[in-house]
Amino acid sequence: MKSRFFSLRLLVFLLLAPMESPAADPRRPNILWLIAEDFGQHLGSYGTREVSSPNLDALAKAGVRYTRFFTTAPVCSPSRSAFMTGMYQTTIGAHNHRSHRDDGYALPTGVRVLTDWFRDGGYFTANVRHMPPPIQWKGTAKTDWNFTYNGKPFDSDRWTDLKGHQPFFAQVNFQETHRAFHAPKHADPAKVQIPPYYPDHAVTREDWAAYLDSAMELDRKIGLVLQRLESDGLADNTLVVFFGDNGQAHVRGKQFCYDSGLLVPLIIRWPKNFPAPKHFQPGGVDDRLLAAIDLAPTMLDLAGISKPAKMQGEIFLGDHAAASRQYVFGARDRCDETVFRFRTVRDPRFRYIRNFTPERPFLQANEYKEKQYPVWNLLKELHAAGKLTPEQEALCASAMPAEELYDIEADPHEIRNLAGSVEHRAVLERLRGVLEKWIEESNDQGRQLEPPDVARRRGATRPQTNPQSGYNLDERSLEPTRLTLPARQL
Predict the structure, then answer these.
(1) pTM check: above 0.90
(2) Under CATH, which number does the domain 23-460 receive?
């Protein structure tokens, strides 16, 4: 009898005793990612005129602003497939835009979506769609991965679930800087700064001003999120990370492997209730070369979760930070129905691009850009009329260079190709060799192009598949969406 009574008391004690679990550990910060679409470094804190971005500028002042943060792809789905796994999209077969939406393609063994690693480590995860009143807009809950994920990649899509589930890893995705632009007008088209490879024309200026207007609307909404974080009592315990999923939504930006397509903002604010890690100085500016795939292992490490063995990204903050990168790499493959294959490497000064499809023109047919980018069509019109400068004419050529080399310090717009320069031969050969080595060592899966019929269907292997399938989370199941085309479009 005494033995049964003792066992009962022991059971009650164990049930009531505090549990030692990662989820209950107050020493670990919450992590909030604020992700902009198709956005370059066009904020006041980065020196852009005609844009007012007080909220993100204040975030940069309180945190660290990074000047050389590059995505590994210049379009959303391969880029997101990369930074959400910490792997090069070319290594994991996720390099073609909106691919593997209907063929059951799985990630390689040992590679997982970042949220799975976080959940194993005791974190709650959310891709926030629903914001609490008085905020009336929704996050996009975007995923857009080029592989099949079975089940729920996030635990919730509601902001109100965060406070009661700490520590959390959450993200809010913002559509504003993705076309079509729809923000209130603020920027003066006459005062915006136009890159020299675009015509200085009313159409160009209006379009660029609309992009900056969208940046201002993005800043306004981020301000509301940061205010809510504060009013919920979460700000002092939450690491805030703002960045773009790929480069700017302009003709020579998104989808192309120049700085304009790969260089994006990164701002990190450290929470007050935690000591700042090594390599982080609040109010500072960090010029190190960073790749977007470095976010995954860095966030895990800051949460006390070991970097997975296969993860290619490098830790850049804290005690386990790797040595500074010498190079960052990028790749572009099929986008929509348009097939190119570019590979690029960037060091602190030079960018080298290898084009494996040089016979195809820069303005190769692309329905998305023809419909959404007015300067795309303007270039064609002014080319036919003989009204373009040499820098602008280069975009209308019937073919592209097989190799490009740019001195970013002397030529930040990347308009003077030095690939044929005797003076720069050593740089060309060095970067060519570095890129070739990366292609081999990273096991680039893009060496074999997709079948032409798959490319024509924009990545779908079945005629009925909507290429937008998997774009975001389903409202009810919280699984990536599964979409089919209407019968009239088959």
Answers:
(1) yes
(2) 3.40.720.10
